[in-house]
TrEMBL record:
Gene behind this protein: LOC111601840
Pfam families in the cross-refs: Thioredoxin (PF00085)
Domain Thioredoxin, chain residue ranges per copy: 1-106
InterPro entries: Thioredoxin-like_sf (IPR036249), Thioredoxin_domain (IPR013766), Thioredoxin_H-type-like (IPR050620)
PROSITE patterns linked: THIOREDOXIN_2 (PS51352)
SUPFAM superfamilies listed in its UniProt record: Thioredoxin-like
Protein name, UniProt field: Thioredoxin-1-like
Length: 106
């Protein structure tokens, strides 16, 4: 799991992913739900590291990406495969996140 530091770094990560599942986690450092689910996201990222890459995006630093991916709530998880948005999970729903990641990593 990585936290992006620049837009170019984000684009490089997407390009390098090839067929790997990408999970974009849009978060805010001040958001209680984001803080609450953070450890679960880290654990899921470790468990699925060979099949998926989790990229954290701070909504306060990357407003262009927030607009591009139409993020309206925090956290929002956007799942991308082959450069296409294939699913999203809104809010700190750990069970839904686990289930979605498991299904999409098959």
């Amino acid at each position: 799991m990585i936290t992006i530091r620049s837009l170019s770094g984000f684009n490089k990560r997407l390009e390098a992913a090839e067929n790997k599942l990408i999970v974009l986690e849009f978060f805010a450092t001040w958001s209680t739900p984001c803080k609450d689910i953070n450890e679960a996201v880290k654990a899921l990222a470790r468990q699925n590291a060979s099949k998926a890459e989790v990229i954290q995006i701070n909504v306060d630093k990357f407003e262009d990406l927030v607009d591009t991916y139409k993020v309206r709530s925090k956290p929002t998880f956007v799942f991308i495969k082959n450069k296409r948005n294939i699913y999203r999970v809104l809010g700190a729903d750990e069970e839904k996140l686990k289930h979605t990641l498991s299904e999409l990593c098959k």
